[in-house]
Amino acid sequence: MISGRTLAQGAWCESKMCDDFTKAASLCFLSEEDFKSLNLSGGMNVLIKSAYGRVVMVPRIDKGLPPGMIFMAMGPWANSLVGSDTGGCGTPQFKGIEVELETTDEPVMDIRSMFTNLGGAKT
Amino acid sequence: MNGQEMKTRTEEDVLCSFCGCLCDDLVVEIEGDNVKNVRHACRLGASKLMGHERIRTPMIRKNGKREEVSYQEAYDRAAHILVNAKRPLLYGWASTVCEAQKKGVLLTEMVGGILDSTATVCHGPSILGIEERGLSGATLGQIKNRADLIVFWGCNPAEADPKHGLRYSTNVWGFFTPEGRKGRNVLVVDVRQTRTAKNADKFIMITPGSDFEVLSALRMFVAGKGEFVPEKVGGVPRAELFEVADMMKAAKFGAFFFGLGITHSRGRAKNVGNALALIAELNAHTKFVVMPMRGHYNVAGIGQVAAWETGFPMSIDFSRGTAYFNPGETAACDVLSRGDTDAVMVIASDPASNFPRGIMENLAKVPVIQIDPYENPTTLLAEVVIPSAIAGVECEGTAYRMDGLALRMKKLVNSPYPSDEEILSGIIESVKKLRGTEAEANAPKEASA
Amino acid sequence: MIIRGGIVYDPANGIFGEEMDLCIDRGRIVEDAKGEEIDAHNLLVMAGGVDAHSHIAGAKVNTGRIMMPDDARLGLEPATAVCRPSTGYTVPNCYAIGYRYARLGYTTAFEAATPILESRHTHEELEEIPIIDKGALTLFGSNWEVMECVREKDLGKLAAYVSWGLRASKGYGVKIVNPGGGEAWGFGANVKGIYDPVPNFDVTPAEIMRSLAQVNESLRLPHSVHVHFNNLGKPGNYTTAIESLDLFKDIKPSQTRQVVHVAHMQFSTYGGTSWNDFKSEAPVIVDYFNKNHFCTMDIGQILFGSATTMTADAPLEYGNAHLLHAKWSNNDIELEESSGVVPLVYLRKNPVNAIQWAIGLELALLTKDPWKVILTTDHPNGSSFVNYPEVVSLLMSKVKRQEELSNIHELASKRTTLPGIEKEMDWCDIAIMTRAAPARILGLEDKGHLGVGADADVTVYDLKPDEMDPSIQHDLVKKSLATAKYTIKGGVLVSRDGEITATPEGRTFWVDASVPKEDEERMMEDLKEKFDRYYSIKLSNYMVQDAYIPNPVVIKAGALPVEEVAP
User: Fold this and answer.
1) C29-71, pLDDT tens digit by residue?
2) C328 with B133: Cβ contact below 8 A
3) Which of B100, B429, C271, C460 is the most buried (most CB within 10 A)?
4) Domain boundaries along the sequence of chain B
């Protein structure tokens, strides 16, 4: 998994609470081969799991991707999969994380729900 | 205002406050105190200057509910949280101006906290690489006027710094580069074919996490020791790597731009060190410069301000009274993941969104003060929310471009919101009051035994 | 304020160790005053020190800080009631720079080189330096507009550009570093001598230096051109120094001062043909300065230990890094300059370093007129400025020099004349070299002396000049000069026995020179084209705005009277 910037994510990053940001940052991109191999029918999402967490995102094809790679915009959805370890340099490893994919009909979580029911009980 | 004409005017040569390109050719049409239209900006800049829904008043969470309060009450509450914390973290800083950043350093010293910027989830590893090797650089205009080879490694300016190619690198005309794009070679190295790669003369796709090895192979070729390079490195055949090394040596002036592909992948700071070493070694053959692609318009600025004020560019811990710098121990993600901070002030950034979720969950466990014009996920975690004016639109100040050039952001319109600088000054005053006397407020915090 | 009974050395006013009171009122030296009394009986009193060449603010200094956290970790000091925390040794943070100069008894320091495009940064840092008065010298020697005016032999337009460049950078004077070389470095090359044409621009360094000096005088700037010679640091470069100096011989100064000030002369006083036969040519250089009165120099003394080289001589820095396998930073500045930063260590047992160390001292001791040779370490290139007292003690004590010579590589004794130099400087010489001369060379009328009307910058050192022998008690000299008993800046006590007692804001000096309107208009046409086509920013965003200089002292200069001509 590689997480990084996209134009759409950047354009909406200062109004993160609105739908357009969710649409931009909950997208993930797969190679044509991988997308087809998942047998996704209309409206289905992908459930992505890493050693650090899980997240549901909306899949799309990006022909520039090699098979075995999933790309997603930086943000709360992508960060559900990123580990906290900084390897002694202070920066987490946001790119190059091993993930597993399966199809799901779970919806993408909205942004407010992503931040509720956390350990410290904030609204 | 029935029938009354709103005053309209046009401001030229406006600086954009989004990415590290810090373009200064925007033309902004203003009606009254509202930005009506922005010309010459890319999609990111236009979006920034046109503005969004924003937080209207300061708020404090009392008894689980958000209440609107005055600015002074918000300053007092923020000061209370910071002063009573043993090791507060003051984080963000990348999207505000230097005048505010300076206040931030002072506040951090006063409360014995840790000052860190968004660089530590971005180009922090580049700073570490520079500390090992130094950086052979140039201003963007030097590249515009001379570079006949542009390398983008692990970065995607087409989506992150959209006008970069038009103004500074690939498609621009200059004194020694009158042919523009035609007179240049563009080489892109990445793990996927990005939009930037589509404009390249040569695109090399490498295996994720193999930047260090590929850079080492190139260094071998540049040093004339290519016979030791294996058949394939990072998924790239030897012959192709040789071609790349040759392309670099044959350039009259090469410019190597790199981004988060290098700093976020396996190797991180070591990748950057290797890239910087490659560029230094290329200078034995030809002229070559290197530049990290900074993502925010003033993340370079907080690095500069912190360095001249404290001696260190980021991750500075004042809890012992003197400056202590040790990324891996004192960076924001480090202290949060270890639960080593008991209060966080977030300004001009959104760590809740941009930190790994596990770290964000720790952020949620401590009191959070947020200073920002806009609501974002960090706002959801915040106990104190203080809305600020938008720097570069509603207040002026200094920003540093990705190449280290300082420019002054303009104030375009009036607004009822205080600037970040004013807010931080307000919190500083509240801290002083809490501490009793001004002299006492400047003393180092007692380190716990 | 009254400073009572000090033994005052004020060479500019002919005072050489007289016991006298000094009176201060509203920031100036006055005839009579009342108020706070400082007891300086029998103690050494001089004007506040003036550092005419130091790298204390701007992009390359900060690059040094960023690339050297190891340096920041030296010199850690916590905050006090009055001070912010300090860090650093060769590249201290801004606050440390102010506090440490004050502790030394220095009250003015000038940044040696600021590139116009990046001067906003320089001033941001200068503003953060507390206590001292300051200014910055603006780089012009590899600048496209300068070179074009020189090529066209259009001194009127050049004067207009220099005047504009000083205003754009809020600079104080004309700095020239490895002229032409900064442009050649844009494609990785350098100029090899003063008659070597700059690639693509068809002008020579000699022409650049001469034209800028002529313009400097036509603009009646307070300071002369300030020059870092081509071929700096190379064995045999003393010939380049002499050749370059000759260029200025026939130019008439517009003020009572030198026509050219040579930066860190030590680095350009090298003989031999390689590092193997490297030797000092100080006697030749000194002979030139003894015979000619149009030039001055600062020594650029190296001291053993850590240093950070930082200079607009970018090819030199690449060379340093290559030679020493050191980390290296470089910054080319479009259309204007280039610069480099390389940390290094000067070693006693390194024959070249040992000879370099001796050369700086030779230059100071052999030059007959102390008004021509001022004390610097080209901070931090030769050593951190906190080590100035070490240099003073060496200049005042032959015994100390001999001790050092026996502890360093023997070539320092064989390839220089230092062992045979008997001269020991006295307090009068030191007051000239560290106060009176730097102020006069810079053209700062109210600095470096203690006459009525001067800025009330006064230092009292904790030693009794009439009761001690600096030749023997060199340790006491070094200790006392490292920590002034009292440092007074603008009439405010800022340091007492090393403790900073106040941190008033210093002022920034810059020069506003006027030129004929037609010249300015022709120059602006050139500039507009450059901004349209070649610069990466707009002309309207280029100049350093007033917001960056909250405490300015603007010195007027120029070819014309300052009043507006009625249309």
Assistant:
1) 999 999 999 999 999 999 999 999 999 999 999 999 999 999 9
2) yes
3) B100
4) 8-49, 54-120+297-445, 124-292
